[in-house]
Automatic annotation (TrEMBL):
Keyword field contains Cytoplasm: yes
Alphabetical list of Pfam families matching this protein: MIEAP
Species the sequence originates in: Cardinalis cardinalis
GO molecular function terms listed in the Swiss-Prot or TrEMBL record: lipid binding
Protein name, UniProt field: Mitochondria-eating protein
InterPro entries: MIEAP, MIEAP_C
Family assignment from sequence similarity: Belongs to the MIEAP family.
GO biological process, one term: mitophagy by internal vacuole formation
Length: 208
C-alpha cells in the first residue's frame, strides 16, 4: 500500500470511549447470546462460562499477535518515506493502522482461536461440540482487541488464575457466588485495564 497521510490523533479520546463502551456491550449482550448458544450443547453453566472466558482471553491474545505483525510491516513501510523522529513515527504507524482496518485478517484470528479452543484439554466438552458455534462473539472480540492496540496507551485485559484471592478492585462477584469466600473459583469475564489501572471490572465466581 502506498504511503498516505495518517489521520490526526485528535479524536483518540472519543475513540477510546467508544471501544470501552463496545467492551461493555459485548459483556452485557453478546456474551449472553453466546451462553444461550452453548447451553444447547452443554448443560453445566459453569462450563459454559469457562468456555466464554477462555474465548475472550484467546481472542485478545490472537488479535494482539496479529496487530504486532501488522505493526512491523507498516513501520518498515512508513520508515522509508517518513521524515519525523522515532516517537512521531510510532504515532503515525498507529494512526495508519487505525485508518486502514482492512490490514487485519480477522478471519485468520477467528480460525486460530477456534482451533486453539478445540484442542484445549481444560475444556470438558462433548466431542461433537465445535467452538465455531460462537465464532460471532470471537470475531467481535478480536476486532475490538485489535482496535484497542492503536490507542496510547493500549487497552488490554487482565488474565486471572483460578484460586487467586478475590480483588474487589478488579472484579464483581457473580450472583451465584459465596460472598463470604475469599478465593476465586473461576472467572466469568476479564477486567479491562489501561497501563495497569482497571477501567472496567471483570466478573468472577467465588466459592469456599
Amino acid at each position: 500500500r502506498p504511503c498516505s497521510p495518517p489521520r490526526l490523533r485528535r479524536g483518540s479520546a472519543s475513540h477510546r470511549a467508544c471501544l470501552i463502551a463496545r467492551y461493555n456491550f459485548i459483556y452485557a449482550k453478546e456474551r449472553l447470546e453466546a451462553e444461550c448458544i452453548l447451553r444447547r450443547y452443554v448443560c453445566n453453566l459453569e462450563t459454559v462460562q469457562r468456555i466464554i472466558y477462555i474465548a475472550c482471553v484467546e481472542s485478545f491474545r490472537a488479535a494482539k499477535m496479529a496487530f504486532w505483525k501488522v505493526k512491523i510491516n507498516v513501520k518498515d513501510t512508513l520508515a522509508i518515506c517518513y521524515r519525523g523522529g522515532p516517537t512521531s513515527l510510532e504515532v503515525a504507524v498507529l494512526d495508519y493502522i487505525a485508518c486502514h482496518k482492512d490490514l487485519y485478517d480477522v478471519c485468520c484470528s477467528v480460525h486460530e482461536v477456534v482451533c486453539c479452543m478445540n484442542r484445549n484439554p481444560k475444556l470438558p466438552c462433548p466431542g461433537e461440540l465445535d467452538f465455531v458455534v460462537i465464532s460471532a462473539l470471537i470475531r467481535e472480540l478480536c476486532c475490538l482487541a485489535y482496535s484497542m492496540q492503536t490507542l496510547i496507551p493500549p487497552l488490554d485485559i487482565a488474565y486471572g488464575v483460578d484460586g487467586e484471592c478475590f480483588n474487589r478492585n478488579m472484579y464483581y462477584r457473580s450472583f451465584d457466588s459465596d460472598f463470604a469466600a475469599p478465593f476465586v473459583a473461576y472467572h466469568v469475564w476479564p477486567p479491562l485495564i489501561e497501563d495497569g489501572t482497571v477501567i472496567v471490572k471483570g466478573e468472577v465466581v467465588t466459592k469456599k
